[in-house]
Design a protein that fits this description.
Layout: E1 4-8, H1 12-23, E2 27-31, E3 43-46, H2 48-57, E4 65-67, E5 70-74, E6 80-85, E7 91-94, H3 95-104, E8 111-112, E9 128-131, H4 138-143, E10 149-151, E11 156-161, E12 168-173, E13 176-180, H5 186-189, E14 191-194, H6 200-209, H7 218-222, E15 233-236, E16 240-242
Parallel strand pairs: 1-2, 1-9, 2-8, 5-12
Antiparallel strand pairs: 3-7, 4-7, 5-6, 10-16, 11-14, 11-15, 12-13, 13-14
Helix pairs in contact: 1-3
């Protein structure tokens, strides 16, 4: 054994750290405040460097992916501003699929569910403590009380809708971004969509009223959001970011 490590948080960062440390011969405990993996989120776009990291962890071949090699940048009315060619190894991966694959390779009992890490004193002794418990990390607040968050003034909504699409796009407008990308699960759950805005409720209303495109643009997605009933539809407020 090379050392002991305690990780707070069983999200992507925490589980990836646990996989890496375990493979290197460390004894690892992961403490997660929830009773199970988070089901929030839809599709993650992975650039080549992120995909290479998953290959080093030994899980890349087990993931179902979609190619994200091209896309379009649109005006709010749906007109194309530019077509984008992304690096060939850019992929889309379901967030839940990634979490489950990371967890599956850990020894039984590595993750302690319903075990919040409210402070460093609440954790067992270890050579290394990894705070991967999110933007509102309780461990960071205790260990670095001077650290502050600032309001990013961004609210993001993401979900899946039964739409046919072969490539992704983003529509940029005043105070809003609307995006759509293909999903492996399109036949069953549709296509992940996201609509962040920096203007709160007014911006969300504008994202609907300014989407006047044809079947490939923002209105085609907003009309389907959410489907009835949705398989997975999450509205996530993301209002803070580290300085």
């Amino acid at each position: 054994m090379r050392g002991t490590a305690v990780i707070a948080g069983a999200g992507i960062a925490g589980l990836a750290a646990a996989r890496s440390l375990t493979a290197a011969g460390w004894e690892v405990q992961v403490h997660e405040r929830h009773p199970q993996l988070s089901t929030a989120g839809t599709l993650l776009g992975l650039w080549p460097a992120a995909w290479a990291a998953l290959e080093r962890l030994g899980i890349a071949s087990a993931l179902e992916t979609v190619s994200l090699s091209s896309g379009e940048l649109l005006r709010p009315d749906g007109r194309v501003l530019v077509r984008l060619a992304l690096p060939g190894t850019t992929r889309g991966v379901g967030r839940m699929d990634l979490l489950e694959t990371l967890l599956a390779g850990l020894p039984e009992g590595t993750v302690r569910w319903s075990s919040p890490a409210s402070s460093p004193a609440a954790l067992p002794d270890a050579d290394v403590v990894v705070a991967a418990d999110g933007v509102h990390s309780a461990l960071r607040a205790r260990a670095f009380p001077a650290a502050r968050l600032r309001d990013a003034r961004v609210v993001a909504f993401r979900g899946v809708a039964p739409l046919e699409t072969r490539e992704g796009f983003e529509a940029w407008g005043a105070g809003l971004i609307f995006g759509r990308a293909p999903s492996r699960a399109a036949a069953a759950t549709g296509t992940p969509a996201s609509a962040p805005t920096s203007r709160g409720p007014a911006g969300r209303m504008r994202s609907r009223s300014s989407a006047r495109s044809t079947g490939t643009g923002p209105r085609a997605s907003t009309r389907c959001s959410p489907p009835s009933p949705p398989r997975r539809w999450t509205g996530a407020a993301s209002r803070t970011s580290p300085r």
